[in-house]
Specification:
The chain is an all-alpha fold. The protein has a domain of about 25 residues. Helices cover about 50% and strands about 0% of the residues. The longest helix is centred in the C-terminal third of the chain and has 16 residues. The N and C termini lie far apart (about 55 Å).
Length: about 60
């Protein structure tokens, strides 16, 4: 049996990407030595930090 984790992750999200997007993602993984999941978590954190708190609902002037 696997070891118990302090913060287990149970949710799986799947998405389709193009070959070009896949190559870009693999390049990021190789440069950062991170997994797909880690890269995507950091992307979500970046997006939240830059577009969170209602910024998406504001229209450009």
């Amino acid at each position: 049996m696997g070891r118990m984790r302090e913060n287990p992750r149970y949710n799986v999200i799947s998405m389709r990407i193009s070959d070009e997007e896949r190559e870009h993602l693999e390049s990021l993984m190789n440069k950062t030595h991170k997994s797909v999941s880690d890269v995507m978590r950091e992307a979500m954190d970046y997006f939240t930090a830059n577009y969170g708190n209602g910024a998406l609902n504001q229209k450009a002037a």
